[in-house]
Amino acid sequence: MFINMSRVQQIIDKLSTISAEQGELTRLAFSPEDQIAHNYVVELCQGHNLQIRYDEIGNLFIRKSGTEDHLPVVAFGSHIDSVVNAGKFDGPLGSIGGLEILLQLCEQNIHTRHPLELIIFTCEESSRFNYATLGSKVMSGIANQQKLSHLRDKQGNGLQQALTNIGLDFNKIDQAKRQANEFKCFVELHIEQGPRLENEQKTIGVVTGIAAPIRCIVNIQGQADHSGATAMHYRHDALLGGAELALTVEQAAIDAGHSTVATVGNLTAKPGVMNVVPGYCELLVDIRGIHTGARQSVFTALKQQIEIISKKRGLQIELQLISTDNPILLPDNMIENISRASQELGYSFEMMPSGAGHDAMHMATLCPTGMIFVPSHKGISHNPLEFTEWKDVEAGIKVLQKVVLEQAEVVG
Amino acid sequence: MFINMSRVQQIIDKLSTISAEQGELTRLAFSPEDQIAHNYVVELCQGHNLQIRYDEIGNLFIRKSGTEDHLPVVAFGSHIDSVVNAGKFDGPLGSIGGLEILLQLCEQNIHTRHPLELIIFTCEESSRFNYATLGSKVMSGIANQQKLSHLRDKQGNGLQQALTNIGLDFNKIDQAKRQANEFKCFVELHIEQGPRLENEQKTIGVVTGIAAPIRCIVNIQGQADHSGATAMHYRHDALLGGAELALTVEQAAIDAGHSTVATVGNLTAKPGVMNVVPGYCELLVDIRGIHTGARQSVFTALKQQIEIISKKRGLQIELQLISTDNPILLPDNMIENISRASQELGYSFEMMPSGAGHDAMHMATLCPTGMIFVPSHKGISHNPLEFTEWKDVEAGIKVLQKVVLEQAEVVG
Questions:
Q1: Which domains, from first to last, does chain A contain?
Q2: Residue-wise over B75-104: b if at least 16 C-beta within 10 A, else e?
């Protein structure tokens, strides 16, 4: 079935220019530019027989009715919010790929028994609130109002304020929860964000499971002192405590095996000037894997090292757990559906886990869920150098299209 | 001779409220609040027979003529700019102590053969431009317009802009250079900013030499990648390179001995979010000592480790030398003058080096220079908890007064 690649390319390129900063792509969730991007996608649906709906947390649903519209929905989608200084494919690929599938059905007047829903999840990236996949977590009931009241962005604003700014009511977000029996299945198309497909020279990744993060903030309180007049043995240098913990996190991830990864995404020292021993330090820590035990071993190593370093350096160290998502295995039937579609379309494919978290992870708690990867050049992502060839983008959309239409059952 | 301690205390307390932020003391050089503080000090001189002059870099001179006014000046002073979230004694002690000495002479109608100059040096702290003792460096010819054109503050503004904002002309700053034969001597009174006097239960520190910093910025370029999808062995994590270098700097200072100290005052990672492997990192490094060889060994260790880490982690690391000040030994006659004054006034005293850099370091290249320390509680400085007992403040001012008046030769 036809895919209009020039339209897909044009929309993805246009989205990449909707940004908080000229010359880079920065579109944090709930920001004015995120709203502009949403409005742009909704505009593209005008004149087609598609129903537009936002839920109470800000997820966007673009629905095409089925001929038997009471049947469970065949859903697919991704997100369009971004990290700071992002690449243009992370999120928009699955969102605009899904939109293209709906537009083709409308233009070619093709109908399905099951209704179709393109879901553009809100706040998938953790860059706004140090909290990822917010929209799908609320939709699947994994997060709720009570659990989210502590979220704050870098400016100290809460989720409540962010929702108010776009006309939503924080007190109603629990109404965004959906029921399992509403969905027949969910499929997400995404770039790999790792180098495996490129290294293996495969076009399609059939995702078997999704690694999930443990996220925490480490607060280190030492003592600010004059950097010239304070002898080394009198110091309580919070930055050095943070440096040791960052290296601990790295080594523990290497030791853990099972493709476990761990990252200190930021280290902030205060007062942060040349001539003062840093009295305070904060670390953002993200630990991921599909092997729960291996992942936990990194967290345990961090906790043990906090004990050791706080004693050794005379520091007060607090570990604040932000989120613990469970890694999930995707169901065999969805893995088979995607493999078969790839094979029938003549694309090489590879079974693989996803190192990155995705909204599919939470949708998998509601309904049979599958995930399709296409190659990321050198594995680079969350970076302007993120790149996927357009022929691979097309391959991904075609596999998504085939799986979705088989599940939704084309009529006549 | 009398010192009006209630006036000294009142002025130091008043200065501590002139700040960029309510509830803390932050008075960066050349800022509006720094100007307000200067104007306040100048106002206190009104009605007395004192001459006020600013030089081309912004140093403030408060002069009392001598009966033989052509004789070389007996100078003393300190600074009133501060670090971020500072204590109230670092700088104001020697500045306001010196002012009190001048005010007493005016009020008691006492004259000296030599003219007296209280110098309030501009931009002593490196917190504005990562560059310390700017005013005294320009005054002594150690820095000049050409060497200072690269300076930038955290907002990216240059020294030229900062000077323009307060009505000075960057193109004229070399005219602030003074000649050695203009000065008979210089004496600076300052808090110790270390715990030695308190630990030794001494009131006065007679400074024998001043440690000086090597300062540099380390720029680390790695690769920003998705923190979930990038295996540990594919990463080029700039933050972890920075963490290793920070710990190297610490260990090298411990190994160097000779009271050498070294500090990474700040580590900045970019993009600095939870879900991206940091692609960039910057360190501010300050290495100090009075033993040049020991100090150099830390710098050498840093350079060697940069080689090792850049290869090991696949990082591009640049070391940018910001300043190298020479440690100095203060002349025996000034050490003896201060010791004798302390003894005659009945104060216990201790010979000691200064770990912190001071304007006295550069004045020592122009004329015989001495330095007087008073105790800092627990050695805390560059911190709101900085504390010196008022009786020790008085002791320091009295020793300064005695030395200055002996040098300036009270008439009749």
A1: 5-210+328-408 (3.40.630.10), 212-324 (3.30.70.360)
A2: bbbbbbbbbbbbbbbbbbbbbbbbbbbbbb
With beta carbons under 8 A apart, name residues in chain A contacting B244.
243, 247
For residue B323, the chain A residue with the least C-alpha distance is A274
User: Cβ B266–A125 below 8 Å, yes or no?
Assistant: no
pLDDT in tens, chain A (412 residues): 799 999 999 999 999 999 999 999 999 999 999 999 999 999 999 999 999 999 999 999 999 999 999 999 999 999 999 999 999 999 999 999 999 999 999 999 999 999 999 999 999 999 999 899 999 999 999 999 999 999 999 899 999 999 999 999 999 999 999 999 999 999 999 999 988 899 899 999 999 999 988 999 999 999 998 888 888 988 999 999 999 999 999 999 999 998 899 999 999 999 998 889 999 999 999 999 888 999 999 999 999 999 999 999 999 999 999 888 889 999 999 999 999 999 999 999 999 989 888 999 999 999 999 999 999 998 888 889 999 999 999 999 999 999 999 999 999 7
pLDDT digits (tens, 9 = 90+) for B373-396: 999 998 888 889 999 999 999 999
Contact predicate A376/A198, CB 8 Å:
yes
Question: Among all residues of chain B, which has the CA nearest to that of A231?
Answer: B261
C-alpha to C-alpha distance for B251 and B253, rounded to whole angstroms? 5
Whether residue B120 contacts residue B60, with contact meaning beta carbons closer than 8 Å, is answered with yes
Cα of B137 vs its chain's centroid, Å: 11
Question: What residues of chain B lie within 8 A of the CB of A356, using their CB?
Answer: 226, 228-229
Q: How far is CA A342 from CA A20, A206, A355, A404, in A?
A: 37, 9, 21, 13
Q: Which residue of B has its CA nearest to A288?
A: B228
What is the distance between the alpha carbons of residues B261 and B317, in angstroms, rounded to a whole number? 23
In degrees, rounded to 5, the angle at the alpha carbon of residue B256 between the alpha carbons of residues B251 and B259 is 105
Q: Which residue has the tokens 């853990």?
A: A256
Which of B220, B275, B284, B373 is the best residue to mutate to test the A interface, defined by the most A CB atoms within 10 Å of its own CB? B275
> What one-character DSSP code corresponds to residue B136?
H
Distance CA B268, CA B284 (A): 9
CA-based diameter of chain A, in Å?
84
Q: Which one of A190, A221, A273 makes the best mutation probe of the B interface by having the most chain B beta carbons within 10 Å?
A: A273
Asked if residues A197 and A374 have their Cβ atoms less than 8 Å apart, the reply is yes
Selecting from A230, A233, A247 the residue whose C-beta is nearest the C-beta of B243 gives: A247
Q: Chain B residues with CB inside 8 Å of A225's CB?
A: 379-383
For chain A, how far is it from start to end, CA to CA, in angstroms?
15
Which residues, in sequence order, are bridge partners of residue A220?
A281, A317
- Write the DSSP assignment of A70-106 as a string of letters: TSPEEEEEEE----TT--SSTTHHHHHHHHHHHHHHH
User: Cβ neighbours of residue B43 under 8 Å, at least 6 residues apart?
Assistant: none
Contact A224, A276 (CB under 8 A): yes
**For residue B410, what are the β-bridge partners?**
B112
- The position carrying tokens 């999840």 is A121
A125: annotated binding-site residue?
Answer: yes
Distance CA B12, CA B87 (A): 11
Residue A354 identity? S
Q: Which amino acid is at B23?
A: G
Residues near A300 by beta carbon (within 8 Å), at least 6 away in sequence: none
